Amino acid sequence: MSYVVLTEKERDELVELYFQLKTLGERYPLAHEETMEALRCLKAIHSNAIEDSKVDRIFLQLLLHGSGVADKSRISRHYGNASLELRGQEGVLRWLESEARKREPLSLFMIREMHRQIFAESVPGMAGTFRTGDVRISRMSHRPPPPRKITEALQQHIDGINESLLGIHVDAKDSFLEVLKVSARVHYLVASVHPFEDGNGRVARAAGDYIMLVHGFYYDVIMTDYRNIYLDALEASTWADTSPLFHFLEYSYLETLKRISGFFRLAEH
């Protein structure tokens, strides 16, 4: 098992790049808007691709842009559902952006609502509903709580998360890194409790995104290419120590910021 850890030099590069792009985003609001749109699309595609290896990213891109055959279910039911869930995922990200602007605290309602929006069209009977059976998580030795304990397991950590979330003022390296640490905690909480029958990974990543959005961060796109090291980091984490996932998020976010940095150079010329 392995997961990535940035060197101190790379961590400094991450922090410096974040504040540079934050300044550029404030200076060029249209470029910022375009970047968020691009990252939202990329994030929806890769978050779904991590969970569903049957539909390649090429086809997910086709689905997201509404191209090709109008009724995807005529090709296959699975493909039709992938189309509905992908659009649901993009809708969730837009909704989270609006909630983040209001600095709404994380809540059980928000976690369930993310799931409901993703699956409202593909599996309406399951959407937003906590699982009713015991589950095991692939690649993880951790055993999620039984159904009767799901609400308690989530709620016992949410208040502390909100206290950290709303108490951070991002103005330096330490406070920037604290946001990523809280994001890792939320991400791990949802993934480890595994409250839904399906879609836990997508909701966990979206919940982690919300922490970042509250503080005006750009999205972190966990690329499908990173799937194995991402899952290794999740497996190596515990509620007492989410540092493996935090270190992975540092790595992933540095790659994301590098990916968008050139676009702002266009806006400067």
Please report the distance between the alpha carbons of the first and last residues: 45 Å
- Fourth-level CATH superfamily: Fido-like domain
What is the total number of structural domains? 1
> Overall mean pLDDT score?
94
Structural class: mainly alpha
Q: What portion of residues belong to β-strands?
A: under 5%
Tell the overall outline: globular
CATH topology: Fic-like fold
Major β-sheet profile: none
CATH architecture: Orthogonal Bundle
Number of helices: 10
Number of strands: 0
Task: Please mark out the parts with pLDDT under 50 across 5 or more consecutive residues, or reply none.
Answer: none
- SSE order: HHHHHHHHHH
Please state the CA-atom Rg, rounded to the nearest Å.
Answer: 18 Å
Structure characterization notes:
There is one protein chain. The protein is mainly α and 269 residues long. It has a single domain, classed as Fic-like fold (Orthogonal Bundle). It has 10 helices and no strands. The chain has helices at 8-27, 29-51, 57-64, 77-101, 108-119, 150-167, 173-193, 200-214, 227-236, 243-267. Helix 7 packs across helix 10. The protein is globular, with a radius of gyration of 18 Å. 36% of the residues are buried.
